[in-house]
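May I ask for whichever protein you like with its backbone structure tokens?
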Amino acid sequence: MTLSFRYATETDLPAVVAMLLDDDFAKARESDALDTYRRAFAEMSKRGDNRVVLAEEDGEIVASLQLFFVTGLSRGGAKRAFVESVRVISRLRGTGVGTALMHHAIDEAGRAGCKLIQLTSDMRRRRAHLFYRRLGFIQSHFGFKLELA
């Protein structure tokens, strides 16, 4: 399998949203109303450090993730990368596509000068947790969320 990587454009949103919807855990919180995703994508696009990374095979979008960078005061003013919404189309899960996409994101974070890369994962996603551990991620913190809307 030969994958290529690129940043998403607005025309890629239907494929990205379809991957978000094809997820048992996220299905209840996602919507097929593309306008809401278009607005979010437009807001993200205003910043050069917040993007959706796509993996393609033969021109077909087969995986995506959101990658963004934040410079903070902790760790000596370190820049860190955050990964969100990692998705692989269902027929290719377990084939190495997700691993390749994550390695691409890790490399990109390193090139951007990040000192660490972090993510959160729903506690019910046991297979995803194994996946992240195999990539070298360490479960070092407890995460908390407060829904505001």
Observations:
- The longest helix spans residues 97-111.
- The mean pLDDT is 94.
- Residues 4-134 form a domain with the Aminopeptidase fold (CATH 3.40.630.30).
- The chain has one domain: 4-134.
